[in-house]
Amino acid sequence: MSIINSQIKPFASKAFHNGQFIDVTDQTLLGKWSVVFFYPADFTFVCPTELGDLADLYPEFQKLGVEIYSVSTDTHFTHKAWHDTSDTIKKIQYPMLADPTHLISRNFGVLIEEAGLADRGTFVIDPEGKIQIVEINAGGVGRDAAELLRKVKAAQYVAAHPGEVCPAKWKEGDATLAPSLDLVGKI
């Protein structure tokens, strides 16, 4: 069953954010665009490269009104320890959610049960709390924050322009399509 356009399920989490522990729930995500970015574990190898890449582009996401939430099955204490010891992770200004009970990972369908870790899952959520984009990668395949930013821009464009769609490789300012009978077989 597809989770596209489905409502996010309830959750509550402690998070490490800007030197503090904060509470984040499913309700926190409502009212703005959000990216929920699952990764397997702190103190690993591919994960810091992805999280650092997101940190580098975080100001661009913020300009679009998008909040990023990274999530692993580690605790908020582990997130703080990683933040305090890694130059790459020190750059992070977005909330790092703890999921030691695995509830959030299960809710989004990315929990690797036998390992107790999350797959590399990326979810773009609209202001109503509905999932608009899903990407799940194998553990050894890192994601690209610039491509994620492009996809968020496309999702926001489509949401703001009913009746238009963004073709492959669409970038902000490029032409879009208006699906109609006239286009069938002509693209």
From TrEMBL:
It is found in: Cytoplasm. Belongs to the peroxiredoxin family. AhpC/Prx1 subfamily. Thiol-specific peroxidase that catalyzes the reduction of hydrogen peroxide and organic hydroperoxides to water and alcohols, respectively. Plays a role in cell protection against oxidative stress by detoxifying peroxides. It comes from Vogesella amnigena. Its EC number is 1.11.1.26. Its main location: cytoplasm. Keywords: Antioxidant, Cytoplasm, Disulfide bond, Oxidoreductase, Peroxidase, Redox-active center. One of its GO terms (molecular function) is NADH-dependent peroxiredoxin activity. Homodimer; disulfide-linked, upon oxidation. 5 homodimers assemble to form a ring-like decamer. Pfam families: 1-cysPrx_C (PF10417), AhpC-TSA (PF00578). It is an enzyme of class 1 (oxidoreductase). SUPFAM superfamilies: Thioredoxin-like. This is Alkyl hydroperoxide reductase C. The lineage of its organism: Bacteria, Pseudomonadati, Pseudomonadota, Betaproteobacteria, Neisseriales. Residues 2-157 form the Thioredoxin domain. It catalyses: a hydroperoxide + NADH + H(+) = an alcohol + NAD(+) + H2O.
